[in-house]
Amino acid sequence: MTEKELVEKFGEIYGPEGEIRVYFAPGRVNLIGEHTDYNGGHVFPCALTIGTYLAARKRKDRNLKFYSVNLAGMGAIQISLDNLKPKENGEWTNYPAGVIWAFEGRGMKLDCGLDIAIYGNIPNGSGLSSSASLEVVTGYMLKDMFGFDVSNQDIALIGQYSENNFNGCNCGIMDQFASAMGKKDHAIFLDTSDLSYAYAPIVLDGAKIVVTNSKVKHSLVTSAYNDRRNESAKALADLQEVCGIESLGELTCEEFERFKSSIKDETNRRRAKHAVYENQRTIQAVEALKNKDLVTFGKLMNASHVSLRDDYETSCEECDILAEEAWKTPGVIGSRITGGGFGGCTVSIVEDEAIDSFKENLTKVYEEKVGKTPEFYVVEIGDGPARLV
After folding, report:
1. What CA–CA distance (Å, rounded) separates 347 from 187?
2. Neighbouring-strand partners of residue 213
3. What is the pLDDT of residues 250-280, one digit of tens each?
4. Widest CA span of the chain, in angstroms?
5. Global pTM?
6. What 3-state class would DSSP assign to 247?
7. Torsions phi, psi of 84, nearest 5?
8. How far apart (Å, rounded) are the C-alpha atoms in residues 158 and 100?
9. What is the Cα–Cα distance from 244 to 182, expressed in whole angstroms?
10. Which residues are designated catalytic?
11. pLDDT the model gives residue 280
C-alpha cells in the first residue's frame, strides 16, 4: 500500500476533508546483541525499509479514533483523550494510545483529538519490532502535528516508557532506538548503559542480510520475556554483593567467571552468563565488521544463537531448526534468532550466489520437520522516521 492509497483509505473511513498528513517509521533487525539492552550492554541493530505508515488529521473534539488497514474487521476504535488507559485484551491501540499518554504525562498536552489510520508491512509477531515502529511513528506524528520540542532520541525513550508502563512489557531501549535513529546502510552500535552510539557502515561485499520468518508468532507481554528480565536482575543483585557493578554489561567474561559462584540460583547464573558473553560478542562483532572480517562476524552470530538457545532459553524449536540448518548450508556466513525470542525470525548473512539454495534448503527441511513454509526477506537497511505527505 502506498501513502496515496493510505490517504484514500483514510478518506473512506473518516472523510477526505482537512489536512491529512502521512508518516513512516521503520521496523528493525538486530544483527547481534540480544537481551543485552536492559542489562547495560551493547546492541547492534539496523532500521529496515519495512515498517509502519500512519495517516492523521486533527479533530475538533477530544476523541481519538484508530483504524488499522491490517485489522480492518475491527473498524475504527474510539478512545477519549480524557480517559487514556490500556485496554485489557491487549488491543493494538494500546501502543499509540500509550505514546499519547506518555507525551501528556511529560506535559505535552494535546489540544484536540485525532483521526488515525495505520498500515504496517512488518509481519505481525515476527520479532521485527512492529510495536516499536508503531510507537515511534506515533511519537514522530505528535511532534510534527503539535509542534512538540522532542528529539528522535526522546521519541525512542518515550516509546520505551509507554511500552513498559502502559502496555506492561518490560522491554529495553533497543527496538525504539533503532526505529527512531535509523540511518540508511548503517547499523547502530549502541551502548545501552549511557545511550552513547556510533553508526557503523554495513559493507557486506557479495553477501546480503536475509531474515527468515518461522511463522511462530511471539507475544512479549504474555511470554517469559519479563521473567528473563527478573532473573537477570536477581543475578545482578547477587553479583553486587561481591563486586561494585551497576549492570551485567560492565563485566568482562573473565570477571564473570571469577564472580559467578556468588549467583545463588543456577538458572539465574546462566541468564547472567548470556548477558555478559553476548555483550562481549557484540563488541567483538563490530570490530570484526570494521576489519571486513565477515567470517568472524558470522561465527559470533552463531555463538549468539547457541547462547540464546541454551543459557537464556529464549529460542524455540522452530528457530533452532532454521538456524542449525542455515549453519549446514554452503554460503551462509552466520545465522541466529533475532528479537525478543520465543518465535519470530532468524537473521542470516548469506553470500549472493547462495541465497536461492539457502531458501530452497531451509524451506524443504522446515516443511518436513515443522509442517510450515517459512518466509524470507532479503532486507535493505533504511532511515529512521519521516513525514511523507
Report:
1. 14
2. 345, 375
3. 999 999 999 999 999 999 999 999 999 999 9
4. 67
5. 0.93
6. coil
7. -85, 105
8. 9
9. 34
10. 175
11. 98
